[in-house]
Structure to design on (443 residues):
């Protein structure tokens, strides 16, 4: 158990650093940056205490915000997906989630992909709506959300495959 | 009472969610209004220090380019110096350095630079310790960058011209018409100049400079050249796309401009309002 907590703290710090120092400067095609730090939220244990989870997600987003001077947009987006995660888990994994027997590592590829797509997309919609914060630029919001989501989903899936834990 | 407490306990996650969401929305809204986003800022000791540490590593990779720019600037300055030494002091503002006002320049390095977001900020490694204050202009050797928005002891945050809240007075080099410079969030090398009256005579490639109407920038600092222009819907003002002299994706080093007359001018303006 102790080991796991250390693992999560380490993951938190590493993800924030990688996001802030490397991925925020990718600017693929001029403006696309993948947001992979939400892997922390994706991979949080299913049995985690809900209030703690909400709070941790908020802190994660706020850390990214402080580094990027972006107000509270990442905090809000993280909070929304942290709150929606149980619902997404239930709709994607169904029974095995209800009985808390599932592990993300063992899930089928299709299910895992659906789970990542749903959460990343939700996160990006909230993020870009708040970043641009102007309904008259709704096309720009849609464009940014779509392309960045695609980019993020690819990178997140790659990372999940590469850093898969063998033991379970 | 019991029921209320039960309700609170039952919905504690939802309430926590709501509370934190409101908090983050508050930060977001603050960050969208100019001069208010003080709380969530990378000028603090921790993030500033970490960015400084990163800068000290990545600094080495750009030395060649930086050297080249410094030599170019030196050449320009030397040419101007030779003009002045003949004591034929020209009144024409040839470019960024020939001002008629007492301004002090403070050098700084860019620790962090965004250009892909809708509201971009730049973090520089000079702060209150080096007498940087909010509302000071920031330029490079080529042209303007933005205005200092928030300072801490060692760092300050600059609101980039690539920010939807940024409004900077700018005008044509060859005439005195002026408008305000803003950014539509699309291309980091092109900004928009609005409210230039239609009487102005424009040509593609004309130079846009700061016009010295505020104490933030001295007159005559380069901004960019006209890429193209059109009249707005009411046919009374031009909307102009300006190609920046600066490459906003690669700034390098900057100068903050301290206006030595700012206090005096502000005092005068305030006294006018009070009467």
């Amino acid at each position: 158990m102790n080991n796991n907590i250390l693992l999560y703290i380490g993951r938190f710090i590493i993800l924030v650093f990688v996001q802030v120092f490397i991925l925020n400067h990718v600017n693929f095609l001029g403006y696309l940056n993948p947001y992979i730090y939400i892997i922390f939220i994706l991979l949080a244990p299913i049995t985690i205490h809900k209030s703690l989870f909400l709070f941790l997600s908020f802190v994660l987003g706020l850390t990214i915000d402080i580094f990027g001077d972006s107000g509270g947009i990442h905090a809000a987006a993280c909070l929304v997906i942290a709150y929606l995660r149980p619902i997404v888990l239930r709709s994607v994994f169904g029974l095995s989630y209800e009985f808390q027997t599932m592990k993300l590592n063992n899930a089928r590829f299709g299910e895992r992909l659906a789970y990542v797509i749903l959460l990343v997309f939700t996160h990006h919609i909230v993020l870009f709506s708040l970043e641009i914060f102007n309904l008259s630029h709704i096309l720009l919001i849609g464009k940014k959300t779509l392309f960045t989501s695609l980019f993020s989903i690819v990178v997140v899936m790659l990372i999940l495959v590469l850093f898969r834990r063998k033991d379970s | 009472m019991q029921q209320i407490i039960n309700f609170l306990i039952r919905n504690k996650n939802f309430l926590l969610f709501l509370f934190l969401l409101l908090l983050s929305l508050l930060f977001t809204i603050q960050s969208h209004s100019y001069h208010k986003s003080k709380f969530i800022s990378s000028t603090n000791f921790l993030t500033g220090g970490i960015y400084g540490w990163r800068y000290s590593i990545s600094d080495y990779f750009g030395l060649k380019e930086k050297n080249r720019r410094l030599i170019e600037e030196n050449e320009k300055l030397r040419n101007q110096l030779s003009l002045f030494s003949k004591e034929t002091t020209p009144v024409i503002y040839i470019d960024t350095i020939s001002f008629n006002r007492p301004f002090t320049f403070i050098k700084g390095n860019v620790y962090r630079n965004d250009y892909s977001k809708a509201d971009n900020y730049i973090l520089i490694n000079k702060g209150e310790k080096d007498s940087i204050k909010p509302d000071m202009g920031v330029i490079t050797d080529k042209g303007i960058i933005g205005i200092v928005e928030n300072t801490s002891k060692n760092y300050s945050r600059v609101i980039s011209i690539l920010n939807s809240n940024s409004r900077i007075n700018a005008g044509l080099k060859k005439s005195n018409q002026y408008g305000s410079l803003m950014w539509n969030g699309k291309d980091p090398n092109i900004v928009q100049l609005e409210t230039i009256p239609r009487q102005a005579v424009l040509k593609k490639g004309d130079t846009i400079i700061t016009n010295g109407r505020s104490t933030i920038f001295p007159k005559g600092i380069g901004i960019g050249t006209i890429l193209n222009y059109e009249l707005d819907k009411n046919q009374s003002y031009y909307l102009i796309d300006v190609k920046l002299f600066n490459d906003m994706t690669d700034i390098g080093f900057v100068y903050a401009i301290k206006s030595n007359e700012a206090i005096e001018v502000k005092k005068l303006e305030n006294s006018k309002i009070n009467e």
Notes: Residues 2-162 of chain A form one domain. The helical segments of chain A are 2-21, 39-42, 50-68, 73-93, 95-98, 109-132, 138-162.
